[in-house]
Write a structure and sequence with these properties.
12 helices, single chain, mainly alpha, about 55% helix
Length: about 200
């Protein structure tokens, strides 16, 4: 089967039926365009924690991550020190991985620098929105030209744990592309949201 039939009888992306908690995330969040800097920082952090794990694990712990990392306020996270790392390593509500925790703190500092340079994280990330040809990329792919370019630029700016595959998942989730399947009932909603969405621009 190439799709999942939801409780309302409508077809959806097949992955949305993989776990009970996926359906609401699929219908309300995944693929809808995001311009909020805090959410745009949170998502790559969560994606980096997911590496080697399942998204279900991360989604179930998302509120724990938000509580542990001050709601992903990157100004606050950038000031974390060794004591915060030890605090986080002792928190059972998150994935306790020293390297990934350190990467979030590092990336928060990079986000602060990006804010100064670009005016907003949103302006930077949406500058990598794929063109029409890439918008048709099938879900079977795990990277794209744009995700490779964005990952390369993030690495250049000092961000860690964000390769092209992780960045592609970020772009799917934050609405830079509409990767809902053609038969998915949510695809049209995302298309409408993307048409109405005002792309952020550099305000520096």
């Amino acid at each position: 089967m190439t799709h999942f039939i939801g409780p309302d009888g409508h077809k959806r992306c097949r992955w949305s039926g993989g776990a009970p908690e996926f359906l609401d995330y699929h219908d309300r969040e995944w693929g809808f365009p995001v311009a909020d800097d805090r959410r745009l920082f949170e998502k790559p952090c969560l994606e980096s924690f997911q590496s080697g794990l399942s998204w279900r694990t991360i989604l179930n712990k998302r509120e724990g991550f938000r509580a542990a990392f001050d709601g992903f306020d990157f100004h606050k996270v950038a000031r974390y020190d060794a004591r915060d790392i030890e605090r986080l390593l002792g928190d059972p509500n998150i994935v306790r991985h020293r390297g990934k925790i350190a990467a979030v703190i590092n990336n928060a500092a990079c986000a602060v620098d990006m804010l100064r340079a670009e005016g907003s994280l949103a302006a930077f990330f949406w500058g990598f929105e794929p063109g029409p040809d890439e918008q048709a990329v099938p879900q079977t792919q795990s990277t794209s030209q744009s995700s490779i370019a964005l990952a390369k630029e993030l690495k250049k700016r000092g961000w860690k744990f964000l390769g092209p595959t992780t960045v592609f998942a970020f772009m799917q989730a934050m609405g830079l592309i509409n990767d809902h399947s053609e038969e998915c009932v949510t695809r049209a909603e995302v298309d409408a949201a993307r048409r109405k969405f005002q792309r952020p621009t550099n305000i520096v």
